[in-house]
# Entry
Amino acid sequence: MGKSHSEIDDGLTKFILGQPMFFVATAPLKVDGHVNLSPKGLDSFRILGPKTVAYVDLIGSGVETIAHLKENGRIVLMFCAFQGPPNVVRVHGCGRVVEPQASEFSDLIRQFPKYDGTRAVIVVDVSRVSSSCGYSVPLLKYEGERTQLFAWCQKKGPEGLIEYKRQKNRQSIDGLPGLAE
# Structure
């Protein structure tokens, strides 16, 4: 049922970009550290090349993905078909965190819509792509994007977001370094 792909080709690109959400999984090196799995949505994902992808990382109450990537780079992204023919695509690779103070941030962020609460761009050098049947993934109806995060960001304001990141995004739940600023 499963198939490996050497890179993200046109068929995989069409499938991946057609999904309204995806999942990101990372883990620390520490055996008893917490594995993290996060859902992502919005127009936040880009395929930069057949072996490079990126997504906008928005502010949240934790910083696990960023901390794990800074520690070891291991990441997998998963795209599931919740409508249409069943399919699941996993993109494995080595990720890196590009924060706003990095020189390449301005070039990367131009490829995405402007979102209040953007804290980084995650770039993944793809090492493995696989697809599988997805027969057990349920059919779900997409109704639209949620707006609460942006309303919350507007209410906090720029200074409030900076303070929130200082309080909540400096380190992971396992004590690994998170955002630099």
